[in-house]
Amino acid sequence: xxxxxxxxxxxxxxxxxxxxxxxxxxxxxxxxxxxxxxxxxxxxxxxxxxxxxxxxxxxxxxxxxxxxxxxxxxxxxxxxxxxxxxxxxxxxxxxxxxxxxxxxxxxxxxxxxxxxxxxxxxxxxxxxxxxxxxxxxxxxxxxxxxxxxxxxxxxxxxxxxxxxxxxxxxxxxxxxxxxxxxxxxxxxxxxxxxxxxxxxxxxxxxxxxxxxxxxxxxxxxxxxxxxxxxxxxxxxxxxxxxxxxxxxxxxxxxxxxxxxxxxxxxxxxxxxxxxxxxxxxxxxxxxxxxxxxxxxxxxxxxxxxxxxxxxxxxxxxxxxxxxxxxxxxxxxxxxxxxxxxxxxxxxxxxxxxxxxxxxxxxxxxxxxxxxxxxxxxxxxxxxxxxxxxxxxxxxxxxxxxxxxxxxxxxxxxxxxxxxxxxxxxxxxxxxxxxxxxxxxxxxxxxxxxxxxxxxxxxxxxxxxxxxxxxxxxxxxxxxxxxxxxxxxxxxxxxxxxxxxxxxxxxxxxxxxxxxxxxxxxxxxxxxxxxxxxxxxxxxxxxxxxxxxxxxxxxxxxxxxxxxxxxxxxxxxxxxxxxxxxxxxxxxxxxxxxxx
Length: 595
Fold this sequence. Notes:
Elements: H1 54-57, E1 59-60, E2 90-92, H2 109-114, E3 159-161, E4 167-169, H3 181-197, H4 201-220, E5 223-225, E6 228-230, E7 236-238, E8 246-247, H5 254-268, H6 275-291, E9 303-305, E10 311-313, H7 328-345, H8 348-363, H9 365-368, H10 386-403, H11 406-418, E11 429-432, E12 435-442, E13 461-469, E14 473-482, E15 488-492, E16 501-503, E17 509-511, E18 514-528, E19 534-538, E20 540-541, E21 547-551, E22 557-567, E23 570-575, E24 584-586, E25 591-592
Parallel strand pairs: 1-20
Antiparallel strand pairs: 2-7, 3-4, 5-6, 7-8, 9-10, 11-14, 11-17, 12-13, 14-15, 15-16, 18-22, 18-25, 19-21, 22-23, 23-24
């Protein structure tokens, strides 16, 4: 790119740029990465990095343990623990007269296969989303949540194993345990992932034994109704935010129905099971899938259609209009079962149900999103959900992988910007430019809560302090998070200003390194607007100053990118082709697809 690279942004040279092609090749998504417009820049501009050394602004810090202090590829933010479906409610034992009609016949695979409906339960809104079935193993459903070896035999306040190795749910250690379908399914799926990644034969054998025990209990305790299999909750349950509704045993959950499909399908695809087991688990998957094709015109049911024609897989199905929760995370977890079933069987109805569900998630996103704060748990009550927001981010990322939808990827990006994961790796530092800055004392949860937010404390401002630095400095920080009603702040955790917060404000104050990184599959497209000057950065390593390229295009120009992250305090995307290959472009200046 002759004439376009400017190593010293602080003292710009103003030149006439000739025409030509920057990337020289057509990019996916239309258009070409075309030439910078001819023109003359004749007005001096202020130094972009005034008071901040370029060695900080244009380099990434060395990572602990990396050879030569180089930057290691960033690890994604740690996943929060799986949500406890019953944690905020109250369990009670049903009356003695409650009879749960468990199936008492052996599994008949042919009957289960023949009972799968061949038509949809009703018409619903669709958008022709297609399932991408050739995903790498690591990107497939539930592969991100292995059960740790230390947890293969749980015994804690809420869970323990019965004599057959099946996980039981109890309100507390002194209470009786219950079969809880979602707890059993998720434990089984985690054990399957543990089985896949562990190298020790004895451990693998126990992981597989645990997974099969959970699946076998679900099969044993199934209810066959309406030509489908349902997995009952054998206790009463009251949830304080569910409009006073009490779920009376037996009740059913669309989340459990969909997750059960994943467990059965994934077991049936393993090499370490017998052919008889494979046949049984495939029949169980057929029985569970059939429940997704039964409407809500009789009981039990798991799917319905709202007044605007959108399909819902209800985590908490209630017949009275408007009383179901329209819960987002439970529906998406159930969708993973539809993806698994379509990937294994090619059944077109599974893909249509998935398409309808994704259309619902896409179009109802404005009700899920809570701009610049935690997203909402469900469509009915719209209560901000600190414990579910990171789940929503992770689940939307997987929906993008499963379909390649740029719209879903864009929704995912918005949730990250609203409230990013705030834990930082050890050794994180913020660069602070020379000059005067304001520090803040804020009322947060404190160390036990990782300095997170609570409704009672509400991030109240307790005090401020002005500090002046004669030259740029760095401060150790251990939290980067959005403060209620404000922007992103860092918590200083050592030195003279330990415990104080400082606002993120590139290039004056920024967290050094790459954080909240997302890799996209497939790659996405960024559009460089016409007539806008944009400086892109190829970062150096550990104090080595990186390079910059400043571009301005006569026409909108597209470029692919494979990653999005907060890099040195700015949301950026990494370009993967042409003259900007390997450079990061700020998202504030380019338009990413899916908007």
